[in-house]
């Protein structure tokens, strides 16, 4: 460890020479009480654009496709028989 770092650690952090304190700035600013863009951004999260509606409409034919594929697999399993006549024909 360098000697200057040892001295700084022993005496605490060196104050900023400009007098600017970042902790005071963060404490003073905080969260704004009024957001001027709040009304302009509100439409993104209401009505048709809510998170649930965005995901619900993302794959519109998936439910129909799953039902059709399941029905086809059931039909193939129960009604289509494989015909084995002993030897394989080439």
From TrEMBL:
The primary site where this protein sits is mitochondrion
For this protein, the record's InterPro entries field holds: NDUFB3 (IPR012576)
TM ranges are none
- Please indicate which superkingdom the organism of origin belongs to: Eukaryota
Q: Provide one Gene Ontology biological process annotation.
A: electron transport chain
Task: Tell me which GO cellular component terms the UniProt record holds.
Answer: mitochondrial inner membrane
Q: How does it sit in the membrane?
A: Single-pass membrane protein
- Please indicate if the UniProt record lists Membrane as a keyword: yes
The places in or outside the cell where this protein is found are: Mitochondrion inner membrane
Any idea which UniProt keywords this protein has? Answer: Electron transport, Membrane, Mitochondrion, Mitochondrion inner membrane, Respiratory chain, Transmembrane, Transmembrane helix, Transport
Which Pfam families does the entry mention? NDUF_B12
Q: What family is this protein classified in?
A: Belongs to the complex I NDUFB3 subunit family.
Role according to the record: Accessory subunit of the mitochondrial membrane respiratory chain NADH dehydrogenase (Complex I), that is believed not to be involved in catalysis. Complex I functions in the transfer of electrons from NADH to the respiratory chain. The immediate electron acceptor for the enzyme is believed to be ubiquinone.
Spell out the protein name for this chain. NADH-ubiquinone oxidoreductase B12 subunit
């Amino acid at each position: 460890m360098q000697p200057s770092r040892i001295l700084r650690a022993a005496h605490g952090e060196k104050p900023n020479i400009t007098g600017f304190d970042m902790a005071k700035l963060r404490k003073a600013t905080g969260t704004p009480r009024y957001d001027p863009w709040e009304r302009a951004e509100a439409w993104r999260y209401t009505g048709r654009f809510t998170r649930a509606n965005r995901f619900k409409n993302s794959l519109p034919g998936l439910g129909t496709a799953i039902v059709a594929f399941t029905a086809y697999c059931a039909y193939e399993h129960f009604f289509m028989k494989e015909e084995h006549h002993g030897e394989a024909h080439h």
